[in-house]
Amino acid sequence: MTTLKCRHCGNNAVINMRHSKLALCESHYIEWFHRQTEKVIKKYNMISHSDRILLAVSGGKDSLSLWYILTELGYKVDGLYINLGITEDDYSLKSQSCIEEFVNKWELNLIVYNIQNEIGYSLIDISQSTKRGAGRPCSVCGLIKRHEKNQISDEQNFNVLATGHNLDDEVATLFSNTLTWSIPMISNQSPVLEATDGFVRKVKPLFRFYERETTAYAIIQNIQYIYEECPFSKGSKSIQYKHIMNDLESKQPGTKINYFTSFQNAQKKGVFQNNDQISDRYKNKCKSCGQPTTAPDLCAYCRMIESLK
Ligand code: SF4
Ligand code: ZN
């Protein structure tokens, strides 16, 4: 078998990106990855060097890689870790210790929000005692994370919230929403969501990288991340959709990026016109926490917390 050579220097390649017919050695891959990230940030006007950026970190390869790159590129980024108290496989413990190791090594600022300390219950307690959980904690988890990310950004004057979503995540979400033709969700899917009254600006600078590309980046940069997925993701629909997309991609390289780029082009042409913008529906302010809500009094998060009392 012939060893693939780097397109730029002819040294042995460490990665071959079949969808773009590009093979690169370690140092040219890192250069390429940083250049692509900056290009996306500029093209979508995502962030500037004067922004105060809060990055949601999970301890996984994507969020830690994004923190590393943004810091290298000179952006001011603090991390937020929401500890959900998941004891299965010591998941929360292991995730937090990966993040703390990273933060200590690079002297970064980390905000830890521990739901057991703040709310008095773990994710499992909440999902077992509320209707919303119904045995699966993901819906409760999503609600807590959304609420806390927005609340902490607002209280601590961050003007941008960044997340490490990669192309595989975006494609799985799009696929899921097209299966149900959920037009409000489809039309709101974007690498940048502008701030609206009560919602901070949200950006996803890694959205054009395949998952194997962010993995390669983290390994080459020697970033110690948690390899295990959350134990509750086993058998989830998003994992199933990722498997389907991986299968298509292996038969036809470029499927994922073409699917997502075609979606963005259609979105630009107004194909997914939506008269029911999610931000327009959140017209009221929660009487307890002050966050935007569709409900007349308490937001879904505060209602859930009330029901625990
Ligand atoms: Fe939360 Fe884990 Fe479910 Fe993801 S898989 S939404 S981290 S509980
Ligand atoms: Zn509220």
Question: With helices defined by DSSP (H or I, 4 residues minimum), what is the helix count?
Answer: 13
Rg, Cα atoms, Å: 20 Å
Number of domains: 1
Regarding CATH, which class? Alpha Beta
Could you say which structural class the secondary elements and strand pairing correspond to?
A: alpha/beta
The CATH topology is Rossmann fold
Structure notes:
The protein has 13 helices and ten strands. It is an alpha/beta fold and 309 residues long. It has one domain (45-308): Rossmann fold (3-Layer(aba) Sandwich), CATH 3.40.50.620. The strands form three sheets. It has a six-stranded mixed sheet, sandwiched between helices. Strands 1-2 form a two-stranded antiparallel sheet. Strand 1 and strand 2 form a beta hairpin. Zinc ion is lined by residues 286, 288-289, 291, 298-299, 301-302. Residues 137-138, 141-142, 230, 232-233 line the site of iron/sulfur cluster.
Descriptive key words:
309 residues, Rossmann fold, six-stranded mixed β-sheet, two-stranded antiparallel ribbon, 10 strands, binds iron/sulfur cluster, binds zinc ion
